[in-house]
Structure formats: structure tokens, C-alpha cells
Amino acid sequence: MTMRPAEWIMICLVLAALAGCAAAPEATTAKDEHVYFHVNAPRASEVTLVVIAQPPADPVLFEISSVKTKTGFWVSFLKLPPGNYRYFFMVDGTPTVESSMERLMVDDFGGMSGVIRVEKTSDGKLETY
Prior knowledge:
With 129 residues, the protein is mostly beta strands. It has a single domain (5-128), classed as Sandwich (Immunoglobulin-like). It is 11% helix and 46% strand. The chain contains one helix and eleven strands, in the order H-E-E-E-E-E-E-E-E-E-E-E. It has one helix at residues 5-18; strands spanning 28-31, 34-40, 47-53, 60-65, 67-68, 73-78, 83-91, 94-96, 104-106, 112-120, 126-128. The strands form two sheets. Strands 3, 4, 7, 8, 9, 10 and 11 form a seven-stranded antiparallel beta sheet that branches. Strands 1-2-6-5 form a four-stranded antiparallel beta sheet, with no helix packed on it. A hairpin with a 4-residue loop joins strand 5 and strand 6. The longest helix has 14 residues, at 5-18. The chain starts with a helix and ends with a strand.
């Protein structure tokens, strides 16, 4: 039986979560009108966040450099309007998804992307789903 790369990635993500990576912070959080993205890459020298606004008929691409924390997590944040987004990290030039991403999808090239929905609550705060 031959498995596609995306299937191997999904299996690895599940195994990583079962091995204890589920304790990592959520891949995205919202605070103060910004959406924060996190990836654990303690040995990386450069991390860039790539966010693609949906729908695909009118995509908008954001590429943002990330800042490394003392714990090895890299953090990026953006002001994003409500909508649907796909995202991944370029870790030293390699497309990467965080094992704590709750929603993943296979992209057009067989790789994986995180998926989030940004909504504004009745009190004007942002929420990510």
C-alpha cells in the first residue's frame, strides 16, 4: 500500500499529539484585535508565517516574519478582518504545520495547511475557530 505525503503528515501529527504535544499552546489565539500564530521550532534560525485569505477566487497572501521566544516557540501576529484563512509556517525554508493546529487541510500541492475562521464577537473582540 502506497501512502501520499499528506497522509504521512496526518499520521505523524496524530502520533505527536498522542505522545504529549497536545500540551503545546494553541496554534492560534486572538487578543487585542490581533490574531497570534505560534509554532514550536527551537532549532530554527528563521521562521515566516504564511497566511492566505479565502475564498480561493480572490486570495490575499500575507508573509510575516516571526519572533523567537525563550521557550523555542516562534510567534507572529496580524490584524485580520473576519473571514476564513489557511496558514502554515516556513521553518528554515520548509513548509511546516504545528502539531497543535486543530483544523488542517490538504492544499493543492499535497502539503498541509492550518485552517482558521476569524469572527468578531458582539462585544467587538476577535475569536478564532
